[in-house]
Amino acid sequence: MIETVRGIFGTLSEMLSYAFLVRAMVVGLLVSLCASLLGVSLVLKRYSMIGDGLSRVGFGAMAIATAVGMAPLTLAIPVVVLAAFLLLRVSENSKIKGDSAIALIATSSLAIGVIVISATTGMNTDVCNYMFGSILAMSRDDVTLSVWLCAVVLVLFILFYNKIFAVTFDENFARATGTRAGAYNTLIALLTAVTIVLGMRMMGALLISSLVIFPSLTSMRVCKRFRTVVISSAVLSVVCFFLGLVISYIYAFPTGASVVGVNIIMFCIFSTIGMMPRRGIA
Question: Among candidates 269, 264, 260, which has minimal Cα distance to 28?
Fold first, then answer.
């Protein structure tokens, strides 16, 4: 037992000796926390695939940034935020609703990104990193920007928690009581857009939506109150990312896939617990 504990601490100490792993851990934990908090509202509003759609937009923006020699996050963040705003407007004010609007914007952005890449740099390593993620992709500037933006997301979520709760569970009632539901829906979408872009560098466009969906769905297998689901999702997301990063380091697995794998295991465990007779589980 003592040898096992020593081995664990030895592995963690070794990981923390690498600057790129420390950067990946800091950003990954913050992004996981933000994604899990926003994911609860998105899942309950049946809008969870917005993360998948916005990640495709992010891929297109990063591809264009790479082609023209710009910093990827500098272009991707405003573009994805704009896409989130347009997605809400298209979904609310036209005949194109929900998943159809997401699919329309996502596939269009992905196609534009692929065309730009094919016409310029070709399918190089950077492009693969955007698709599947890479812990080596985080520079010092990326970490600084990510920490500040994640802090903004967390602060805004906490400040407007009650309003977000209201529009999540009963938007019509929230409107009737004077709550500007449209503004708070936009806030949720914009915060999600920022979180998705920040997490794409590590998780990749194909896997980033898992940070939004898995923790909340897993928590809902056991927890039944909004607050307990939010807290459980936050804890689960942080733990799953940390374990996924450690597994990725030990076995040389891709980081994004490792994190998703841990989330799948947690989902199965919580689903099993949820099927058992409950006694006072919140």
Answer: 260
Q: At what angle do helices 2-16 and 19-44 cross, to 10 degrees?
A: 100
How far is the C-alpha of 120 from the C-alpha of 192, rounded, in Å?
30
pLDDT for the residue 35: 92
Predicted pLDDT at 99 = 67
pLDDT in tens, 87-133: 777 666 556 666 677 777 788 888 888 788 777 766 555 666 777 77
State the helix-helix crossing angle for 161-169 and 140-159, rounded to 10 degrees: 70
Task: Give the residue carrying structure tokens 């309003």.
Answer: 163
The token pair at 140 is 């010092």
Which DSSP symbol is given to 74? H
Q: What is the pTM of this model?
A: 0.86
Q: How many CB atoms lie within 10 A of CB 226?
A: 16
